Structure formats: C-alpha cells, structure tokens
Amino acid sequence: MRNSTFLLAAIALAGCAAGTPSSYPATTEARLAVFAQATPCCDDPSGFQYKALPPRGILETDVGSASQVFDFHSGKSPFVAFELPQQTSPYRVRIKSEFKGKNGDVDAIFYPVVALLDDTFIVTHMTGLDNLRLEPALATPGGEAGLSVSLAIDPVEQQGKYLVVFTPAVLLGEPPDLRREGDMLTPPTLAWLERRGETLIPPSPYGHLHITIVPEQAAGGSTAAAHSRSN
C-alpha cells in the first residue's frame, strides 16, 4: 500500500508540471540510448568541472546529455558538481529533481543522490534513495513538483569542499560489473527497488534540478545539525 501511495502521489503532483524545453531527449528510451553511448570524463573527481554554489539563493540546472559522466563506485552516471561557498555558518542545501515530462506527463524522473567531498576529493557523506521525499509544487514559490533531498552542511566541523549530484547506475540498468570496494550505494538501492516493486516511476539518466541554499535553522539557542544529515 505504501508503494502504491508513492506512485499515485507522484503522478498527482506531476500533473501540474508543464512541459518545458530541456537539454536532453523527450522520451525515456531516447535518453537511455544517448546515455549508453556516454563515456567517463575523467579518472577521478579531481578532474571534475565544478561550478560555484552560491552562499544562498536558488540555482536551476539540468543533468543532460551534455553533462559530465563518471564511473562512480556504484557505476556510470551523469552528474553535476559544485564547489561549496566559503562561509563558516551552517547552511542547508535542498536539491529537487522536478517532474518535467512532455505535455505534463511523467514517463520517468532523475533520482538524485548527493555526495559531499572534502578538499582531497574523499567522500565524507552520501545520501541514498531512502532520503528522497515527494515535494509538491507549492513547497517552492513558482516551482514544480518533484523528488527532493535535503543536506545540512556545517563548514567548520565537516570540512566539506565539493558537492556532487548523480544517480545510482543500477537504476539505469548499468550496475558495476563486479562488487566494488567502496560501493555503498548499490546494495541499499537494490533493497529500495525491491520494496518499491512495480510502483516505481521509471528512472531517467537526465533531469532538471532546482537547488535551494538557505541558512540552517537554529534550535534551542544553538545551530541545529552540527553534522550533515538528510531529511
């Protein structure tokens, strides 16, 4: 019942999303075909092209056919990468993958996961599909419905330097050939898929992201979330 609720709610929310031009093919089949031909951009995250993430505000971006692609521990995926702002106060980054199907129909969606890297490009924190939440369009002024993940960042304690958004390769039918050391994403993704069953909205390698950066809320007179966490 919970799985069915997830699918029905997503379709209902997505019904309000208007089709808009994008940097990737309109159909899921065409997207997967384009993605299958993509090759990794570099050997390790030090070669990524990082955009600057603003200290606060809203950023819109596509994960599209022109995006960088990397062979992560969990397999090949397109991605977007950001250098975190230089500030000392905790803040929160919310990343929403929007339902933007053709003519408002939702045939697939990009399932985002987020990795936080330090200045040596080591992953210090990573979200999973269990952290995704359905978010209605009204949750963001002028926004669209979608799947969102929220990450609290404390620059002082975490020493985070970079943020990377990608999707589990197993969702796209391209899991790693063998179990790789350091692959913390594929096993929980497979468990998540088993729980969702046939109610899952088909995954897409591409999608539109709405990113919001806001100061972290204070709680009880002190800054909440001294450590990175997901909602």
Structure description:
16% of the residues lie in helices and 30% in strands. It has one domain. Strands 1, 3, 4, 6, 7 and 10 form a 6-stranded mixed beta sheet that branches. The protein has a 5-stranded antiparallel beta sheet with strand order 2-11-5-9-8. The protein has a two-stranded antiparallel sheet with strand order 12-13. The chain is an alpha+beta fold and 231 residues long.
What's the number of structural domains?
Answer: 1
Structural class from helices and strands? alpha+beta
Helical percentage? 10-25%
pLDDT averaged over residues: 82
Give the N-terminus to C-terminus distance in angstroms: 22 Å
Strand content: 25-35%
The major pleated sheet works out as: 6 strands, mixed
Counting DSSP E segments of at least 2 residues, the number of strands comes to: 13
**What value does the Rg take, in angstroms?**
17 Å
Low-confidence segments = 1-21, 219-231
Give the overall form: globular
Main features:
13 strands; 231 residues; 6-stranded mixed sheet; 5-stranded antiparallel sheet; globular; 4 helices
